[in-house]
Amino acid sequence: MKANLEDFVREHQKEIRNDPMFRGQVQRMCQLIGVDPLVSRKGYMAELLGVGDFYCELGIQIIGICVATRSINGGLIELDDLQQRLIRRRIKGSEPIIEDDIKRAISQLKPLKGGYRIVTFGNRKMVQSISREMNPDNSTVLALAQYTCKFTVEDVRVGFEWDMNRIRSCIDDMLRSGIIWVDDYDAVQPEYWVPAFFSQMSGANLGS
């Protein structure tokens, strides 16, 4: 079976490199028969697939974007936003990329111990690039803000019936890490914004 797969990959190398959907299907076939293209026979299958350098390059670009935007979004960037930034950054004529490519590239960044991972808040898929565990309260409040990109203390209190100490602790933690910003124009009821969610709401182009 593995020999047949290698023959198939050789025959369709060009399509694999140029068609991200087809590339994903071939990689899933590899997984079904127990072959990891990125580690198999010291990268032999990766070389056949043409994905070794591809994912290395993509990983470097992901790191660059995450670092460039970290001061704005606190180390959280929406997966769709990251994909669009990658597409704009990549050289014209480069292999097209899809969400699955980004996920695979991020999985290869684990040895760097930079905290790179995919996290989900409600329906939003985010890429985290900070070495910290998002505690359950943080995740719950971020999910609350997934559609409006903001929340207030009252939103959290009514939504989850938490006491003020718990709410304050959660908000202060996210403020310190830069995950949220505070708009205290209304001193009585300040609003807390999640900059990582801005792109989908307004098409904002923060960072590069």
TrEMBL record:
<dbReference type="InterPro" id="IPR016689">
    <property type="entry name" value="ESCRT-2_cplx_Snf8"/>
</dbReference>
<dbReference type="Pfam" id="PF04157">
    <property type="entry name" value="EAP30"/>
</dbReference>
<dbReference type="InterPro" id="IPR036388">
    <property type="entry name" value="WH-like_DNA-bd_sf"/>
</dbReference>
<dbReference type="GO" id="GO:0000814">
    <property type="term" value="C:ESCRT II complex"/>
</dbReference>
<dbReference type="InterPro" id="IPR036390">
    <property type="entry name" value="WH_DNA-bd_sf"/>
</dbReference>
<dbReference type="GO" id="GO:0043328">
    <property type="term" value="P:protein transport to vacuole involved in ubiquitin-dependent protein catabolic process via the multivesicular body sorting pathway"/>
</dbReference>
<protein>
    <submittedName>
        <fullName>ESCRT II complex subunit Dot2</fullName>
    </submittedName>
</protein>
<comment type="similarity">
    <text>Belongs to the SNF8 family.</text>
</comment>
<dbReference type="InterPro" id="IPR040608">
    <property type="entry name" value="Snf8/Vps36"/>
</dbReference>
